[in-house]
Amino acid sequence: MNIEVIDMSPWAGREDPEPDSLRWHQCIRPLADDSPTGVALIGFASDAGVARNQGRIGAAAAPRALRKTLANLAWHRQAPAYDAGDVHCHGNALESAQEHLGKRLERLLDAGHQPIVLGGGHEVAYGSWLGLARHLEKQQREPDGLAPRIGIVNFDAHFDLRDPRRGSSSGTPFAQIAQQCDERGWPFHYACLGVSRASNTRALFERAAELDVLVREDHEINRTTLDAIVLDLERFIVHCDHLYLTIDLDVLPACEAPGVSAPAAHGVSLTLIEPLIKVIRDSGKLRVADIAELNPNFDIDGRTAKAAARLIHHLTLNA
Ligand SMILES: N=CN[C@@H](CCC(=O)O)C(=O)O
Ligand SMILES: [Mn+2]
Ligand SMILES: [Mn+2]
């Protein structure tokens, strides 16, 4: 039984008198045990990983800021959307918060929902993947169950492949996942789109090459290359049964996303990110998504929160 009382207070906004003028705040419902399947938003209020990674803290406040911004966007969906509450990271207890998120996601997936996690620093990614992995593990145990082929698509200026033996943080989640895949005998399929060469050391590029990561740097993604990158992404997706999409908002240029720990001097504009996300959205394979690194302390005019809310809106348009 779900005993958490879900705080619906961020879901407030403009109310238009005309018919057919609904917004998210008028449609989203608190998740209940008997809710029909739909999109389930769950917050991960953590910046412990950012703190450990020498970043600017504040992302723990992001889930609430994101809900408040999404609240006012127009509702164009058919299927229901739910607020599934928050997982909080208390102090430096990151590992237990990631475990807790994993368990909550596993339950949401078992119930047939499509979870979207509102981070939180990018340490959210390890918890998101854990939830999906535990959900899929049960299917693998069935007779003839094969190792699941999970494709991770990360829009990010950073690989986040730092060595977790030096301590896990917002800079290590995909290295932690690679390790977990190795231990389980699962393939590790990772695409990192929007990487900044200036912001990732040679060691990180080498690790990405060793892990056969599909890499497209920030400057490589532009109007003239977009069609080719869509094709690259489609080819990546063909070899996966399930997709986990993770969006680190620092993939956007600093003018579009100033409210992050590490703003991007170059970045990849929302106008280029959206068509790529559409490929993932429409693939029929998307199981879990998260959006990371919003830091309301450094936002300007709510720009970053608006970009994040629009991405969620875009991602769930057909769901
Ligand atoms: N999740 C963020 N990861 C980046 C942060 C870079 C920075 O703070 O400058 C990383 O570890 O590379
Ligand atoms: Mn990043
Ligand atoms: Mn990141």
From TrEMBL:
Its cofactor is Mn(2+). It comes from Litchfieldella qijiaojingensis. Pathway: Amino-acid degradation; L-histidine degradation into L-glutamate; L-glutamate from N-formimidoyl-L-glutamate (hydrolase route): step 1/1. Keywords: Histidine metabolism, Hydrolase, Manganese, Metal-binding. It is an enzyme of class 3 (hydrolase). Its EC number is 3.5.3.8. Binds 2 manganese ions per subunit. The keyword Lyase does not apply. InterPro entries: HutG, Ureohydrolase, Ureohydrolase_dom_sf, Ureohydrolase_Mn_BS. Catalyzes the conversion of N-formimidoyl-L-glutamate to L-glutamate and formamide. Mn(2+) 1 binds at H122, D156, D160, D248. Coiled coil: none annotated. It catalyses: N-formimidoyl-L-glutamate + H2O = formamide + L-glutamate. Belongs to the arginase family. Gene3D superfamilies: Ureohydrolase domain. This is Formimidoylglutamase. The gene is hutG.
